[in-house]
Design a protein that fits this description.
heterodimer; A: 172 residues; alpha/beta; 8 helices; B: 187 residues; Rossmann fold; six-stranded parallel sheet; two-stranded antiparallel ribbon; 19% strand; globular
């Protein structure tokens, strides 16, 4: 039984759909496995599996200009891999992005290789002036996703939601 | 052939298509021939023109999408060829103007100057239709064939390493971005 929370993934996916998201780009990581499967199984959602997360910035930018709301699913290291695209495409052109970033390398992380990226994630978001919020509890998931989407569109800028361990990982 | 000649030869066919270009000479030269509200110039995120084209093609299956890319740009996003090929939208034509150099920063040779083959890489990535053309006649015929085939195509056009006198045009980036979005909304 996977310790990645199916119920939390369902809440996240349903909230994204409820926000009008019709295209999801994704590069898998452990915490996103159920979310990606839900996107794949949903006939109303276009799932674009990427080779590298930065492509998702271009894809989402194109989708936005073409009138389609999208979300990016990636690990925080994928966010690191996307930085130039975020700055030079989305920020430069004032294009909203909804970035769902799984927050690895933080408190509770057992994989050593995640910890360096975990340590810089928030500072990098702040340095790039990307508004972000935490998704830590099922109680606020839908509300925070809606508010993130609202801000992304009113500001015409990328906004990030950090999918935290307490939300995504089920363990005693 | 020059890139300017190639763009000029097909400019009239672009009125009903959604066009995304990469930065530098491609953008400046297309504008010098004639800007249209359905043309978007991606002025800095190298590599992402093809990804933007894919996002637009998937979102607007009712319209033909043409990407004008460069060798320097696509070399920065080779993985994107596999993503394009994975979803193979029928309404996407990916043109790569290959002048074997990064022209606007001083003319440094790219890897295509020493044998790297973009069309070959696109084919190996799974793009269903690929070709490399060297003359204006070959280019216009290949472009028309790609549009007519209704199948994802990467069309590499080998062009001279020449470009415009300047790269900053009088169309502001944000003006272009909002006008393009509005055109897409209305058409």
């Amino acid at each position: 039984m996977s310790p990645v929370s199916t119920s939390s993934s369902r809440l996240v996916f349903d909230a994204l759909k409820d926000c009008g998201v019709r295209l999801i780009s994704a590069l898998p990581e452990t915490w996103l496995v159920h979310l990606i499967r839900m996107a794949e199984d949903d006939p109303e959602t276009i799932l674009v599996r990427l080779a590298k997360e930065e492509e998702g910035v271009g894809i989402s930018a194109g989708a936005h200009l073409a009138g389609v709301r999208s979300a990016m699913l990636m690990q925080n290291h994928g966010f690191l891999a996307s930085v130039n695209g975020i700055v030079s495409c989305a920020q430069l052109y004032r294009i909203p992005l909804l970035m769902m970033i799984s927050y690895r390398g933080e408190f509770g992380e057992r994989d050593p290789w995640q910890t360096e990226g975990g340590g810089v994630t928030e500072d990098l978001l702040r340095a790039l002036r990307i508004p972000f919020a935490y998704l830590e509890d099922q109680e606020h998931v839908a509300r925070r996703i809606h508010k993130a989407q609202t801000l992304a569109h009113s500001a015409n800028k990328p906004v990030a939601l950090l999918l935290c361990r307490d939300l995504m990982w089920e363990e005693g | 052939m020059t890139r300017l000649e190639a763009l000029g030869a097909i400019h009239g066919r672009l009125d009903d298509k959604i066009v995304v270009t990469i930065m530098g000479a491609v953008s400046a030269e297309l504008q010098s021939i004639g800007h249209r509200p359905n043309f978007f110039y991606l002025q800095h995120a190298m590599g992402l023109a093809s990804s933007m084209g894919l996002g637009i093609a998937l979102s607007r299956p009712d319209r033909e999408v043409v990407v004008f890319d460069g060798d320097g740009s696509i070399l920065m996003n080779l993985g994107g060829l596999t993503t394009m090929a994975r979803y193979k939208p029928r309404n996407l034509v990916h043109v790569v103007f290959d002048n074997e150099s990064l022209l606007s920063v001083g003319g440094f040779p790219t890897a295509t100057a020493t044998g790297s083959d973009i069309a070959g890489m696109a084919a190996a990535a799974g793009v269903p239709r690929t070709c490399t053309v060297r003359t204006l006649d070959e280019f216009t015929r290949a472009f028309d064939a790609a549009v007519q085939a209704r199948e994802l195509t990467t069309l590499v056009a080998k062009v001279d390493a020449v470009g415009p006198a300047g790269y900053v045009t009088d169309l502001a980036m944000l003006e272009n971005r909002f006008e393009f979005q509005r055109w897409l909304r209305q058409h």
